[in-house]
Amino acid sequence: MGYTKDQLLARLQELKIYFTCYDHPVVLTVEEQAKHVGHLGGALSKNLLLKDKKHRLYVISALAGTKVDMKILSQRLGLGKGGLRMAPEENLLEVLQVPLGCVTPFALINESASAVSLLLDQGFKSKQICYFHPLTNDVTIALSSSNLDKFLISFGKQPAYVDLEAAPAVGKDNPPDLAHLVPSGVPNSSEQPVENASHTNVPHHQNNVPKETEVKAIMTISKVQSKGAETSSKVDKPTTNTSVDKFVNDVFDIISPLLSEELKKLDIKKEELSSILDGLRGRADPDLKSIAMTLKNASYTNGFHAGFKTMLHRGLNG
User: Fold this and answer.
1) Chain mean pLDDT for the chain
2) Residue 98, by phi and psi: left (phi above 0), alpha (psi -120 to 50) or beta?
3) Which intervals of the chain are annotated as region Disordered (predicted)?
4) Mind listing the pLDDT tens digit for each residue in 169-217?
5) N or C terminus of the chain: which is more exposed, having fewer CB within 10 Å?
6) More confident of the two residues 158 and 226
């Protein structure tokens, strides 16, 4: 389960982010939303979930009046003219974990969306108040772009503001200006190619069929775990994985000073140095988190099997 509206709003309050909520009927378009909050003077946004040929996902968040040419944007990302298309509804539900009409930068807080790239309209920077749906399209919240940045940075997503109407030439002498925003990882998706699916945690022992006693024991343990998970889900809020985040932060705490020293030798200015380090962190963060989660899941799996075998042998012997 991903974040709910109430859990998201609670997270904003924890971060001391000022926002205002406006309830209204369910809306599916910016035009419908404008009927309820357009008169309040803030900047309405339109949000798209796009997909490239390698199944990488992009959330494009733009001002309602910004014209986004997908062919030009695709070229600027280095994907060719037809490299981008609208992502299917399955990706909304499985990756962003929101229904149709609820695409929003806020959905990127869900761990399933950690590998999704976010491109924000640079026009938001000039607006005092911006409007977004908080994971549900029967509510609109108003907040400043600086507070949106604060929210994104809180879970490791570096905001990237882009002139979405620009059309710079792309060619041999003009490399794609947005290529650094192409995600390096692929989110979990029902459309992910079978050959790329990971089977690390699925043991295959063709000639090792569990005995009846073991089957009963496994079923008992599964029921206990399911009951515990059900109880926990009623009281716990989903949060970013603290240990994984700490691991990633520790890695960058080690790498950043070393890289900084090397870059200083090249007479790179302090402002450029900071930008380079932030860009490196933004691109490497999803992959490091994915590796950390894989290792963590593997250790949990191995620990469970070891504990189960110990318990089973004790039970059979006594």
Assistant:
1) 78
2) beta
3) 187-209
4) 998 899 999 999 999 888 765 444 433 333 333 333 333 334 444 444 4
5) C
6) 158
Average pLDDT estimate for 81-93: 93
The model carries a pTM of 0.60
Segment 95-115 mean pLDDT: 95
Euclidean distance between CA atoms 212 and 61, whole angstroms = 55
Contacts of 287 (CB under 8 A, 6+ apart): 184, 185
Average pLDDT of the segment spanning 141-149 = 97
Q: What stretch(es) of the chain map to CATH 3.90.960.10?
A: 5-188
The number of residues in the chain equals 318
Q: What is the Cα–Cα distance from 136 to 103, expressed in whole angstroms?
A: 9
For domain 5-188, give the fold. YbaK protein (3.90.960)
